[in-house]
Amino acid sequence: MSFYSVDQTKCKKCLICAEVCPNxxxxxxxxxxxxxxRIGGEASCLQCGHCVAVCPVDxxxxxxxxxxxxxxxxxPLAISxxxxxxxLRTRRSIRAFKSKPVDHETLxxxxxxxxxxxxxxxxxxxQWIMVESPELVRELAEMTxxxxxxxxxxxxxxxxxxxxxxxxxxxxxxxDLILRGAPHLAISYTEKGNTWxxxxxxxxxxxxxxxxxxxxxxACFAGFFxxxxxxxMPLRERLGxxxxxxxxxxxxxxxxxxxxxxxxxxKKLSVNWL
Length: 274
Hints:
The protein is α+β, with helices and mostly antiparallel strands. Helices cover 35% and strands 14% of the residues. The strands form three sheets. It has a four-stranded antiparallel β-sheet, with helices on both faces. α5 (134-154) crosses α9 (223-229). It is elongated and about 75 Å long. It starts with a strand and ends in a 20-residue tail after the last strand. This is Nitroreductase. Belongs to the nitroreductase family. Keywords: Iron, Iron-sulfur, Metal-binding, Oxidoreductase.
């Protein structure tokens, strides 16, 4: 099978595949009118799958992406605008969790959906560490406090910036203000050198949070932990992060202890229409 092929018995010569190709690698054969890939186009293909996914008669094949891996869209599952609006507006940052753990299957479903988050040039650079054990989450929170304690001794300016004194005091009183007693933690990381690392990861983390929300699982960004995961070698070693890895964000996961019957207001949106 060639890298890009078209079933000529089915092709309607609509050239939609050529129009949606991000890098314009598909062109019309002058003799047959059938779309074909440019010479050497394989090297520039993003493997986004748009050419295969968009074909109305399912006649396009891309060698690295078997057709059976393309899922037909179930149109009856489409949600209304009102449903989508309420779903997005009812997402809350959860900081009070039930002790009940989320089952492994659900966690797996949540992180799997992040694979569909858009990324620059379709590079999909985001990798994950899923901390399933509540005991390990607690250990990671404690290691973050250890890092903060070290900051107070050796870098007072940074310690003041992160307000570590109150966080350490809270921990000593039994208050986990780092990971909030969450039973699980999702950690996104990428390799250094990608210009869009943080953006790609932020989008993937948003997908993670919305996927969790759709399953009744609460989530919240773990900012202090993320700082620590990029600065404290004992924590990096505990997570298995290599020297060329950047921790882009941690997200606490678990069932919310309380429900929210109302949607809070937001400050007025600033938009400059041109």
